[in-house]
């Protein structure tokens, strides 16, 4: 009996110790490894640093620690002219893993050319990485990736909200740039999805409160950025995305189906702005003839029936579209990438049971990063890498990030913005992204510093091999075009 008790006590204590180890994060850590890759046919040597850096509270004590991965090209001696790209993903509550090992970094997932997972999981060299032209820092906000709160008494509101997220991350970035000696470097922020909300606010915060100025911000699959539009404009703006998706699934009439997307999408965009939105605004005062005409055109462009459009009063919700477009085939389409198809428990209903795009992606990323972190970066930890971490409730009040980005641009003549959108992204659609641009610069006086790029894929356009190349090249050109000549003054003529 005593032997059993001793064994039980030993196993209990061992389990307790292991549990404690898993819950802890090193507040400060750093592991450096050396590598070489080939980008655009040329050898690029680089150093990778995987580590943690603290977030400090008002009393100067650590309250959290953020995991990061930092890539530096090692055959460049002058860092003052070497661009630094600081990368965030979204959620909120999502780690930086997505763009890190599938887009801009030196390695990418082993997936097929259209983005579907392959086994065995793992990574391979990324011949299109932007590491040839810029060093890259990937940051995991609190409770994402390996990042954790270290002060159990800290108020969660310190981290989990639009403005608190921006506030503590700006301070963290300031510390990192100082430690890394990168104040002189041309600097860029890139964010994806909710990460666009984050970087739009960050660039304004860093410029106004930390006096750190940037050359560029890249918004990948942007959110609404707090820009007012209301349900009528927001929902109406989805029509061009519906048209692109219906074209991809060959659900349009022959006159449109036989055209290329680039040929007829401008027509759909013009209809949305000039006819659809004004018609929906009229509501019950819209004449029967006008209603019939608008519904007929909407059905023609969207691949839906006119009856369905009329039943929804000319405003088709996205959930319904994903369920309805291929309902006759018994299939649904993906939210984040509408090229992906799935099927539900039942063909009835007004929304799909799940997003076939996201479920496909999740099981490729998680194991691949675990392999990469341990075997390539030599970063060893028992912490769980949170693809999606516990960050709720998230305070979404007082969001002005899109307007703040416009202010940052007006106050910094060096600052450029590029938007990248997937034409088949139904989560953050491309036409609402264009609408953002128009409102960030309502005067049109900064049009030479704001650009938009579209790709024939979804939310993570880089998962498609063809778009991985073109989208990275677009970033490369954006960086090169937003660099300024030595001694060029930041002023308006």
UniProtKB/TrEMBL annotation:
Keywords: Carboxypeptidase, Glycoprotein, Hydrolase, Protease, Signal
Signal peptide segment: 1-19
Superkingdom of the source species: Bacteria
InterPro entries: AB_hydrolase_fold, Peptidase_S10
GO molecular function: carboxypeptidase activity
Protein name, entry field: Carboxypeptidase
Organism: Algoriphagus halophytocola
């Amino acid at each position: 009996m005593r032997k059993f008790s001793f064994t039980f006590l030993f196993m209990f204590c061992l389990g307790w110790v292991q549990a404690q180890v898993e819950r802890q994060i090193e507040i400060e850590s750093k592991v450096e490894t050396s590598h070489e890759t080939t980008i655009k046919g040329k050898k690029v040597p680089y150093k990778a640093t995987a580590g943690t850096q603290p977030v400090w509270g008002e009393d100067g004590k650590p309250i959290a620690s953020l995991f990061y991965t930092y890539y530096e090209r090692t055959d460049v001696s002058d860092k003052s002219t070497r661009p630094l790209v600081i990368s965030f993903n979204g959620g909120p509550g999502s780690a930086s893993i997505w763009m890190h090992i599938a887009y801009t970094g030196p390695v990418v997932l082993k997936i097929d050319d259209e983005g579907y997972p392959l086994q065995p999981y793992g990574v391979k060299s990324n011949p299109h990485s932007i590491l040839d032209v810029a060093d890259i820092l990937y940051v995991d906000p609190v409770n994402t990736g390996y990042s954790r709160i270290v002060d159990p008494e800290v108020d969660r509101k310190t981290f989990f909200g639009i403005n608190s997220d921006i506030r503590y991350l700006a301070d963290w970035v300031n510390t990192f740039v100082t430690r890394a000696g990168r104040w002189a470097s041309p600097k860029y922020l890139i964010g994806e999805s909710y990460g666009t909300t984050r970087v739009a606010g960050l660039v304004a915060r860093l410029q106004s409160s930390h006096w750190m100025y940037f050359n560029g911000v890249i918004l990948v699959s942007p959110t609404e950025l707090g820009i007012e539009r209301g349900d009528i404009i927001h929902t109406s703006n989805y029509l061009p995305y519906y048209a692109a998706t219906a074209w991809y699934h060959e659900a349009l009439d022959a006159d449109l189906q036989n055209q290329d997307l680039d040929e007829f999408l401008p027509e759909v965009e013009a209809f949305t702005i000039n006819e659809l939105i004004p018609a929906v605004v009229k509501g019950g005062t819209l004449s029967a003839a006008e209603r019939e005409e608008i519904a007929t055109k909407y059905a023609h462009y969207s691949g839906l029936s006119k009856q369905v459009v009329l039943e929804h009063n000319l405003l088709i919700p996205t959930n319904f579209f994903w369920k309805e477009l291929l309902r006759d085939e018994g299939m649904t389409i993906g939210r984040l990438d509408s090229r992906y198809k799935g099927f539900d428990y039942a063909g009835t209903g007004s929304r799909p049971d799940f997003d076939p795009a996201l479920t496909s992606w999740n099981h490729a990323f998680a194991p691949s990063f675990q392999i990469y972190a341990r075997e390539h970066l030599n970063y060893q930890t028992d912490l769980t890498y949170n693809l999606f971490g516990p960050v709720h409730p998230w305070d979404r009040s007082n969001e002005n990030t899109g307007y703040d980005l416009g202010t940052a641009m007006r106050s910094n003549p060096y600052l450029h913005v590029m938007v990248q959108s997937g034409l088949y992204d139904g989560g953050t659609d491309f036409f609402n992204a264009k609408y953002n641009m128009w409102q960030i610069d309502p005067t049109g006086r900064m049009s030479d510093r704001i650009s938009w790029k579209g790709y024939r894929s979804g939310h993570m356009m880089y998962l498609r091999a063809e778009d991985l190349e073109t989208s990275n090249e677009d970033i490369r050109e954006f960086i090169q075009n937003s660099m300024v000549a030595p001694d060029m003054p930041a002023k308006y003529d």
